[in-house]
Amino acid sequence: MATPHINAEPGDFADTVLMPGDPLRAKYIAETYLEQVRQVNTVRNMSGYTGTYRGRAISVMGHGMGIPSVSIYAKELITDYGVTRLIRVGSCGAVRDDVAVRDVVVGLGACTDSGVNRSRFAGMDFAAIADFELTRHAVDAAADRGLPVKVGNLFSADLFYDPRPETAELLRRYGIVGVEMEAAGLFGVAAEFGARAATLCTVSDHILRGDSLSSADRERTFDDMMHVALEAVLRHDASRGVTP
């Protein structure tokens, strides 16, 4: 049954959904990496698709920008369409000295200045963490491809244009591996409704050094990350004895 934000039919989504922020990126992922693709959501142009990867049904759908947007889509995918695994595939900024553009960042957890997880957790601090098994398989897949990968805490910011110039240095001191805008919300929704979630990001710029990738380099780095995400799904299936 359709929700206010998704007009797919029951069964249109696979149990696993890859989620980039940009709906056009979702279209690119579906057309580039999946076979037998069909579009399953068109509401608000937040495109969703389902296809197969090496015989395994996988869906991909945009989640928009920020915690409120990703939280809406993740909640409805889980509770209304039976999705059990959500993997955010996006980009982030770096602040740590040993994290560079082109690195793949895998989030173990996500700090945030948003209040959404306190709202869902009775005013208490909630440790927004990724699913261990999905995360482990992503890290192993990246290592097998010889990719530079950093694993650790993300920071999910409410503000893209932060008026506090000291924030980036604070995040660096606390060892944050990537600054983005969604992971803490995604992890909170997954915990609330009993799903697995992970976040993989490519480092597109270094906030403190001013380094950034060209558009061509972004595409190449994103391709590496996508192969890691898809391989992580297959490895997780295999670890549970699931075959396509």
Explain how this protein is built.
There is one protein chain. This protein is of the alpha/beta class. The protein has 7 helices and 9 strands, in the order E-H-E-E-E-H-E-E-H-H-E-H-E-H-E-H. The protein has helices at 23-33, 67-81, 116-120, 132-144, 167-173, 183-193, 215-239; strands at 16-19, 35-41, 48-53, 56-61, 85-94, 104-112, 149-156, 178-180, 196-206. Strands 2-3-4-1-5-9-6-7-8 form a 9-stranded mixed beta sheet, with helices on both faces. Helix 2 (67-81) runs parallel beside helix 6. The longest helix is centred in the last third of the chain and has 25 residues, at 215-239. 46% of the residues are buried.
Summarize the structure.
The protein has helices at residues 23-33, 67-81, 116-120, 132-144, 167-173, 183-193, 215-239, and strands at residues 16-19, 35-41, 48-53, 56-61, 85-94, 104-112, 149-156, 178-180, 196-206. With 244 residues, the protein is an alpha/beta fold.
